[in-house]
Each structure stands twice: as structure tokens, then as C-alpha cells.
Task: structure prediction
Amino acid sequence: MNRKKLQKLTESLCKSAKHFNKFEVECLIKLFNNLDVEPSDRHAIVGLDRNSFRNILHVTFGMTDDMIMDRVFRAFDKDNDSCISVTEWVEGLSIFLRGTLEEKMKYCFEVYDLNGDGYISREEMFHMLKNSLLKQPSEEDPDEGIKDLVEITLKKMDYDHDGKVSFVDFEKAVREENLLLEAFGPCLPDMKCRMSFESQAFQDAPEL
Ligand SMILES: [Ca+2]
Ligand SMILES: [Ca+2]
Result:
């Protein structure tokens, strides 16, 4: 990428990825270009495919749940072309690393609404809770315990009592109890991963 192109891209991304300054946007573009090192097919769309992105989520952000990582990929892949472009990368990271509570609520809801129909259903909760709980030693019939947990969670979050969690329900519940933001599995980086990613990505700060 030549200097002029980089500058233009940086300027436009500074407007859309509003939690980063110009220097940070430029660092993230450079990082993206270094990650995306396999121009195996010249006609291929330039970007991160599912596997490379999941690899970053796993190695850099310590995520382990396949289903959640897949949903995070989809949340980043706004245009749904199965590939994360540089714009999607920077804009996604803006929310992922530094989003406001509003932005994070939208993002988490999108991750947890597995089939994208606008609701987190009993079945979806069951899948996600099962995944995140099975890593711990469980009793005889783990499914029963998870079903109970689904009902408890619904009781807490389903304000309009229609048996599923809409975004309005979710928002209301999270505002009341912030810990519910990641109720169905970690999909945001913890403080340690965030700091270490940022200090690496933004390390060549210009000397003042
Ligand atoms: Ca895309
Ligand atoms: Ca759904």
C-alpha cells in the first residue's frame, strides 16, 4: 500500500472507527497488512478469512469457544462476504477494544443471536451456556442444570415475557446489571489481553 493510499484510508477510518486516533488507525492498518501475508490467489478478496481471524481471537485474545469465535467473526464481517476487510478490521476493533456500553451491547447481542433473527431464544441460550459450562466438571445430567440456568436467565432478562430475549430486553437487563453483558460467554477481550494487544500494536509511537 503506498503512502497516499494509506493516508486516505487512515483519514476515512478515523471518522468511522471513532475510538482510535490517527496514529492508532495507521498502526492497525499496518498490522492488518502484515497479518494478511498470503496473496495465494491474486483475485482473492484482500482480507482475513475465518481461520486467520479465529486464530487471532484465540492466540491474542484467549478465546476458546468455537461457536462464539465464529459469531465474533460474523459480527466483524459487516458485509457478510466471509472475509474481514481492513475497514471491518479497524471499525470492529474500535468497538471490541474500546466500545461504549451501547456499542458493546449491540455487539454482544449480535454475537449471541446465533441465527440472527433478532432474538436470543431458549435454544440459543442452551447451546451457548452448555458450551461455556461443559469445561467445568459437571454433575450427572449436565443438560438439566443448563436448562435450569436458561430458565433463571430468562426470568432475569425476558422483561416482556415472550420466552425469548429481544435487544430491548437485553439492553434493559445489562443496564441494570453490567455483568450480564457477557452472560452467554466471553466475546470481548479481558483487560490483560486488551492492554497487551494495544501496547504491541501501538508500540512505534512517534517520539515526542
Ligand atoms: Ca467482509
Ligand atoms: Ca436468535
